[in-house]
């Protein structure tokens, strides 16, 4: 009886301590939330000024990231324009008023998911956090999209990888009734929880030792939980090593690597594979040395993958694919011109 009483007392004490810690945590966030929500217009148009304002008076890394998150979801409005124009920052077609760069987002205070995520990443990086913008599949109301239609963030906080979706959180803000639970549920989420409705294009960006396959994600939460709960004799996926190798690659090679991984993990997603092949070829043509100094082998590799992207785009009937086919054909012509010019030089 005495042992039970001692156990109950310890349990109550533990619960009280946790409650006090949670209450203090909530109080800190109320302070951070209020300051971020009420940031003056004078700091809201410039990335550095905004960052300096948001980190001022924060006490730890979590509070800094909370300030970035709260400011974005309260001050940036989601808006997707239907008229498409090629965006050189992401090498893809977006609405004419849609922004992807942080400078543009701060200027117009409107964005789609790429804009939300890129701004959040930039603020995190200004504070020295390792952070990334991730594209992938999402599931809403049990509806799965077979293309990567969304972007979100992952940040290393206090040695742990945490996920954020400022776009969905902003949508919760813009609803008639502010959904506080949704806002908090999309802030600093563990990889195992976030994977329930967000699946990155390639396994690397899950930040898990047992990446969830596309087929398991597609099957729903119960299948995901069952998969994660299984014990296996197979080796674990060393995402830390893979991330280090990936970050050492040139930007063009990162896109090629992503395209190849998409082909392995979800062969049916030809569209995003074609996008990555196009980005590899475009960046190889335009961003590595001058066109005149590129080797024939480099140009031939770019030609090979841009032709692969064109073959995929022309088999798709949607507007985005048809526009990307036109853009890819333009770059193919430039690559062929460079190959011809290089061949003539080598023959002289």
Automatic annotation (TrEMBL):
Q: Transmembrane ranges? A: none
One Pfam match = Transglut_core
Question: By its UniProt entry, which InterPro entries does this protein fall under?
Answer: CAP/Cytokinesis_protein, Papain-like_cys_pep_sf, Transglutaminase-like
Annotated GO CC locations: cytoplasm
- Keywords attached to this entry: Signal
At the top level, the lineage of the source is Bacteria
Residues of the signal peptide: 1-25
Domain Transglutaminase-like residue range list:
105-168
Q: Which Gene3D superfamilies match?
A: 3.10.620.30
Protein name listed in UniProt: Transglutaminase-like domain-containing protein
């Amino acid at each position: 009886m005495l042992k039970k009483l001692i156990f109950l007392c310890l349990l109550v004490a533990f619960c009280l301590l946790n409650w006090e810690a949670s209450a203090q945590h909530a109080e800190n966030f109320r302070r951070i939330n209020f300051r971020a929500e009420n940031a003056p217009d004078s700091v809201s148009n410039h990335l550095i000024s905004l960052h300096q304002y948001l980190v001022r008076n924060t006490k730890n890394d979590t509070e800094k990231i909370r300030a970035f998150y709260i400011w974005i979801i309260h001050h940036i409005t989601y808006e997707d324009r239907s008229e498409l124009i090629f965006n050189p920052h992401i090498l893809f077609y977006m609405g004419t008023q849609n922004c992807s760069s942080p400078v543009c987002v701060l200027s117009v205070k409107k964005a789609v998911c790429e804009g939300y995520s890129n701004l959040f990443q930039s603020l995190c990086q200004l504070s020295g956090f390792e952070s990334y913008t991730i594209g992938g599949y999402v599931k809403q109301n049990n509806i799965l999209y077979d293309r990567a239609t969304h972007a979100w963030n992952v940040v290393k906080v206090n040695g742990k990888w945490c996920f954020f979706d400022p776009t969905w959180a902003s949508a919760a803000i813009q609803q008639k009734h502010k959904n506080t639970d949704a806002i908090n549920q999309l802030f600093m989420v563990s990889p195992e929880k976030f994977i329930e409705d967000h699946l990155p294009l390639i396994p690397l960006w899950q930040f898990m030792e047992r990446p969830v396959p596309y087929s398991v994600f597609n099957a729903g939460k119960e299948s995901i939980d069952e998969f994660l709960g299984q014990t296996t004799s197979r080796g674990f996926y060393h995402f830390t090593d893979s991330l280090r190798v990936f970050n050492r690659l040139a930007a063009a090679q990162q896109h090629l690597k992503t395209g190849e991984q998409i082909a392995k993990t979800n062969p049916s997603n030809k569209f995003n594979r074609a996008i990555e092949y196009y980005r590899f070829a475009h960046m190889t043509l335009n961003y590595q040395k001058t066109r005149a100094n590129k080797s024939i082998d480099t140009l031939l590799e770019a030609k090979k993958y841009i032709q692969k992207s064109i073959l995929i785009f022309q088999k798709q009937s949607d507007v985005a694919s048809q526009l990307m086919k036109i853009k890819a054909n333009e770059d193919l012509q430039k690559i062929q011109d460079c190959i011809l010019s290089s061949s003539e030089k080598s023959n002289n």
